[in-house]
Every structure is written in C-alpha cells, then in structure tokens.
Amino acid sequence: MEEAKPYLVLPRRLRRMREVLAHRQKDLILFMDRVKNEHNFSALIRTAEAVGLQEIWYGFDEPYPVPLNEGVTLGAHRWIFLHRAENPVETLRAFRQRGFQVVVTWLGAGSRDFREVDYTRPTVLVVGNEVEGVSPEILPLATHRIKIPMVGMVRSLNVSVATGVILYEAFRQREAAGLYDQPQLSPAEMEAIIRRWAYEDVLRRKQKPPA
Ligand SMILES: C[S@@+](CC[C@H](N)C(=O)[O-])C[C@H]1O[C@@H](n2cnc3c(N)ncnc32)[C@H](O)[C@@H]1O
Known about the structure:
By secondary structure, the protein is an alpha/beta fold. The protein contains six helices and seven strands, in the order H-E-H-E-H-E-H-E-E-E-E-H-H.
C-alpha cells in the first residue's frame, strides 16, 4: 500500500493548490531591476502571482532587506519563488541561453509598442527602478525594448501599474493560445511544489518562534 503523504493542509486546500499549479506559466518570468519602494515591490509580486507566474527574479543593490510588505502581497509571496540575482546581467544572459526572450521596458528611443511582442514565447519581462528605470547594462541583453504608449503630460507610469498592464497582455495572449488550458509544469515539478507548500512551509511556520 502506498504510504500517505504527510500533507499538513486540508484536502480542500490541497485541491486548490493543484488547481493553481495547473495554470502556472513556468516560462513567463518577471525580473525586477532595483525596485525599491515597498508598495511597488509587493504589488508586483501580487500581480505576477495572479497572472500565474511561478518565478520572480530581482536585482537589489541596497544593504537592507528587500522591502516586502505582507499587507500588500496578501500572502502572494508565499506562492511564488522569489530569487535574488547577485549579478543581473549574468542571470539574464543565462535566460537567453536557455531560449528565453528578454523583454525590457525602456522609455527611451527605439522601443516598440508592448502589444507587438509575442508573449506566448518563453519570456523574461524586465521592469526598472522607480527613478532610474532599467539599468543601461541590461539593455544589450534585450531581445525587445518595449513601452506602453502614453499621451498625457506625465512621461512614465508607476512601475507596478506598468507591469500589470504588460502582464495582463501576456495573460490575454497566452489564454488565447491555450497555454492556461494544459499544465505547463510536469507532474514531478507540481509534486515538488505541493510538498513545499503543503508540508515544508506549513511546518516552518508552525516552528517559527513567536515574535
Ligand atoms: C517610473 S518608471 C522609471 C522612469 C525612468 N525615468 C525611465 O526613464 O525609465 C519605472 C519603471 O516603470 C515601468 N514603466 C513606467 N512607464 C512605462 C511605460 N510607459 N512603458 C513601459 N514601462 C513603463 C518601467 O519598467 C520603468 O523602468
């Protein structure tokens, strides 16, 4: 007889986890380049998780911890893998070598309308710092430079708003292409994540000493 898995969540919760994982888009990645505002950093995580991303990378050049606000993420950070890129250029180069297109938001000349890009391809979307935008060292790695058209007096959008607009265009295209209809994660990948969510993370939270 198969040994029961020691999941520490109710069956209903487990079902929900499996449903969510069936829609995960493992080849759609968000890269946050030095996003420093706590609200932005956290809102980006929440939106990415809502669209079905499983992985976020970020570059962060400050000595203090990343500005994550659980009141803004509403727990989304628990359901998505957050990786810090010690060397953003190398991280993005590695993604390109794996066949990902690197789509960089860039407000300068030479950017195309964000709706012209095919987001059904394996994609890393790069968004930038609130003041400086995306670092110029990242630009040579861009497969596409994109911008959201604007016709007002203000020259840029808030980063979390801009990211939401682009990710929902990616969602729209991927949904139309049927990429949410079939699981993108393999059964083994799904089980590994379920084990983490429904066992390891629960255990870690239970063992955490009260603050
Ligand atoms: C406030 S903007 C940075 C402005 C900065 N002066 C620049 O030129 O990039 C912060 C980030 O929001 C995103 N963003 C803002 N407006 C955008 C737009 N119209 N199109 C695409 N991305 C945008 C980009 O990721 C940008 O790096």
